Amino acid sequence: MEHTLPELTQDLDMEEVREKKTTEVPGFLCKTLVPSPIVRKALPSWLPGGEAAVYLIKDVTIELHRVNDDGTLTCLIQHPMFKKIRDAQVLCFKESAKLDIGVNAQSLTREPDVLAYTSMDGTLAFLRYAPPAAESSSTPTTTGKPRFRYSTVEPASTGTFGMCGTYPLGTLGDDIDQIGQSLALDPLGRAGVVAATQNRLAMFSIRKPANDTAAIVIQETQSIEVPGVIWHAMFLTPPTFTSPIGDDEETKSSRVPVHLMVYIYDTAAAKPRVLVYQWFPGTPLSTLYEYGNMPLPTELSLPLHMTALNEVKDSALIVTETEACLFEAGRIRSGDLAFVRAPLPKGAGLVTGIATSRQASYADDYVYLLHETGRISRVDACTTEATVVNAGQVEPGSFAFAVLDMDMGTGDLVFAGGAMCSSGVYLLSTDGAVTRYFELPNLSPVFDFDVYTPPDSTSGQQRLLVTHGRSEGGMFSELRTGLPLRVHDEVGDFENISGLWSAPDTIGHRVFVFITYPWNETNCLCYDYETREIEDVTDALGVDSGKETLAVGRDGERLVQVTRDGVISLAGRTEPDVEKTSFAELFGMGSEVLAANVLRGQLVVGSRHFKTGETRLLPRSLPKKEGLRIEETPGSWLLSSEPTFLSQYDLPLAPSERPLSGRICIAGTLSSEIVVCNIDPFSALTHLCTQKVIVSNGQEYEDAIPESAVVIANEGWNMLLVGARTGHMLLYRMMEEGTQLQLVDTVKLGSRPVKIRSHSKTEAYVASDAVWKVIASQAGDVTLAEMVMEQGLESISLVSKSVDGLIDASPILPCISGTALAFAEVGKEVRLCTRSIPLEATPRRVITDHKGTGAFTVLTNISTETSGVTRSDIKYIDIASGALKTSYPLATTDTDSLIFKDNEVIYSIFEWSIQLRPGVMYHYVCAGTGWKGGVDIGGRLHFLNFKPSKDDPGRSRVKRLKPFRTADAVVAIASIASFGVVYSTLGKQICVRTLNVNGTDNKVGFSPEEVTFKLRSAATRISVKDNVIYCSTQRDSVVVLTYDQAAKKIAFLYSDPKPRLGLDHWVRGSGLVLASDKSGYVWGFVPSMNGSQQKRSFQVKLPVAISRMKEASLLASNAGTAGSPEGFCKVIICSGIDGSIFGLSQLPAEAYNLLHLVQKQYFQAIAAVRGETPWEQREILNGTALQALLGMNTEQWKKILGTALEELSRFVTVMETRLEEPPARTGDVLEQDIDATKMVIRNALSEVIV
């Protein structure tokens, strides 16, 4: 039966909780913020319409990416699974109406592929991708007005997966741990085989579906038992076969036999063996018979990989530890042991991946072998010989390997990735050269993370710092969601830049960049982004370099430079061709030009008259004929103060009832005003409106000086974006032919002035504390996508001032990063970006300092010259620049002696802030250590004080208190009471020590008295709240103790009633305790009224064990008004060692009740399709199940909701009554209810920016 509903595709496998819900924990939603980046398998495929694609198979996620012409990948959909994936293959149905079967498998007309996979629950399933259906109406909004929204990664916005068949594997008594470990499919889509046990295969025949929406039907199955252990099974490419004229497609297919090759180890004969089975489609599977059986020489080493060849028909290449062997079905049938063998290169390591070239132009089969060292070998195979040549080098540790279906002309495009390295797309040229076209960063393995607030951020946005990688590949990374900026080139030492302009060259692949300094100097550089050459053309073009530049633009094919003295027209070629006109000629000697702007032959200046003191807007026309002859145009406007900027835009940008004509001019003034004027086609200037710029500083409203403004089109309106000197960006709607500006939203972007530059009608760039791309969406919102620089450059401080199509003509953005002029390429889609700093060691722990400017990173297994010695140390890193703030290895400043000794391993780190007296704060970094090897035993507790160096502000001085020894290694630390520190040891002790302070000279030292408590197992994490100690232990998950400071006593309060190995926990303000265990569960506990016991509130099963949990205040996708709490949300961040990050957040009661109803109906509908008993209760919303609902149409929603339609409408009505501007109700009420519910789901899932 065809499945009309998608499978519950969920990476959050929540068990049923039958206890009554507690009112203390309302509305929790669990969602995947960052899926695991580890790619287990890559499978080339085709999309509907014939576009090349690739499936990336991860542990619990399937991703489908389009392969672009430039070798990059675009993610179409992420599909989290309910259970872990064991194996997957692409099921291809190739048409052969005009071609004989087997003539050229790569040239056959393709239908869209279907993905087949086996999962841990012992099922075989088929997924079919469907592109997004065209919507008749635009995406609904619940606010009724445009707003700023922060961009998030939305993986399921470009299509859906439909389940087109689910089948159980095996029968009663089969070992579920063995079923489905491997899967193989016939190249023509007629049969498949799965591994049932070590010596048994289950083969099944497949009936081709009648259309693209029909189910995949398995007609019958046949068990195949072999005399040994199965190593590999593979279907072979059918041989060339010319069918009689008049045969239909089904008859043609039935004439070509299916050959299945199985490589086994014969346990009775103690030698390897190759078997070949044959079956003709159209006949029962019971007619399957053994076609060939050949024992192999005992000296053959372990077979690692097996793949079918394309050009050498009915053959397979088997790769062992030392050689590649070519086996043909015909020779196996005849028992011919003279098969082709070729030795593998020495020193390359074991083969971890294998892929066959998919280009039909090659005469031989090109089989690429990926080695553990990252080296790629190519086997050129034919029927008589096989040669192995070097094909290039990728990152070591890769194992997911595939050749993509994209003909690049000079070689094969391959995908390679692994667990400990980044994944990428590479071009393997025939001459052995390797070019990386695309990279997917990999955070695995993640050891620790911390949450910090950048010191220069006035918005309160927090960010994530992650330590990941092993040995020399250890990294310290900052995670952001945004558009990646890839730097192509950088040049020069550009400090104190006051202005940056750029204009494209008429040639089409060059850009001119004008740079101005405060000391009245201008330079011009020419950058060719094809040859990537940078040239200083200041003198060659005739640029007036001794003057301050006010504006740069174009007048036809000529460049126009506007300085304080006049207008210079440049030919824009390498030989000088200069025409000048001074402002003294235009305005007389009694005035000066303060600001200017040029747009396609139209000049607008802000000129102040010395005698009257008046400042006016004056337009001037630049005719394109008869040289540079500036004509006076009628009209001007008196400004209230000096202009801060001028800009121009052609109208209409967006359709409206009464559109403006001609050109619009916008001016900002020092009196906090925006002035809007219209320049008609006859260059006459007419004033439209003046708007006071007012922003909120969190408590009251204040005037703000505008620094820049652009006009973009949004939902049929012209929208004005204004950047203020206070760090705010304001969004206005232009009303009544531009005579009114309606403020609709404000967002705080930082503390620096906001510079906005536009390059198209719907997009702009914004620079403040960070750089953002602004996109006007069709839904009426304005989306902000942060741009993130790659490693090695600081944040962008200034972007190009070009307004004349630079980005449309060029993929390169000129920008200033630190003191370098960089030429960067802006990414095409929003994704998770990492700004990484290499550590060259294995990072274990990370914490940020109290200022938010530095991070303390614990490193272990540092290489030393002394053999057998383990080194562990701390790096104090400046987050912004990545520079070290202290010596390394860490040593005291006064004595220059090393802090940590050989074989002393750091297990825990904690920053302890204490106030000795009013106004006097001490900050100590507490490090708990233990001895690993050597003669020392036990551990030590260190207290380090870091202060800025007087000689070098970028460095820090290190002082320490005398460390005290402990009986066992210190594995967790926290502060308690006024001057106390609590720590746990591997000896199961919880210890509290108090700091003694000498009030006379502020000398500090620890009391010799120690309060201890013995646990049943060691505590690996400790947190303290109001003198209550929460411990994650190796036996009791969570143990809660109380500390009486007066009585100096620790008492037991309660513990988790179910024994399990606890990894981490987090305590919320309401008393809710979230705890994680080794099995991958996250539990919620609520204490009773008297606090003497705890009650389980909810549980959620994640695909990986959560090793670290912290709460973060992160930006919501809807920014809201600056300073309002709706711009942020509190999220419990949960990280797994495989690089996946999850978030637990609370929703408002109305949204939670609505989504809980929809989720319950969805679970019931899925259970009805599968014939299962529906789950009765869910105490936590399932983020991925809700994600699946977004891709369903109205008819599917009606089927899911069933009898709950009235209840849904009631919940939606309750929500809309809470809105300031409820949407108007017209048309189909049910469809509007479903659209409103989808919007609630979308807001809930895209609420957080990492």
TrEMBL record:
From which organism does this entry originate? Saitoella complicata (strain BCRC 22490 / CBS 7301 / JCM 7358 / NBRC 10748 / NRRL Y-17804)
Entry similarity comment: Belongs to the DDB1 family.
Q: Where is the RSE1/DDB1/CPSF1 second beta-propeller domain?
A: 490-789
Locations listed in the record:
Nucleus
SUPFAM superfamilies, alphabetically?
Answer: Quinoprotein alcohol dehydrogenase-like
Xref: InterPro entries: Beta-prop_RSE1/DDB1/CPSF1_1st, Beta-prop_RSE1/DDB1/CPSF1_2nd, Quinoprotein_ADH-like_sf, RSE1/DDB1/CFT1, RSE1/DDB1/CPSF1_C, WD40/YVTN_repeat-like_dom_sf
Q: Where is the RSE1/DDB1/CPSF1 C-terminal domain?
A: 893-1179
One GO MF term on file is:
nucleic acid binding
Extract the coiled-coil ranges from the record: none
One GO cellular component this record assigns the protein to is:
nucleus
Keyword set for this entry?
Nucleus
Q: This protein's superkingdom?
A: Eukaryota
Main subcellular location = nucleus
Name all RSE1/DDB1/CPSF1 first beta-propeller domain ranges.
Answer: 56-443
Question: Which named protein is this?
Answer: DNA damage-binding protein 1
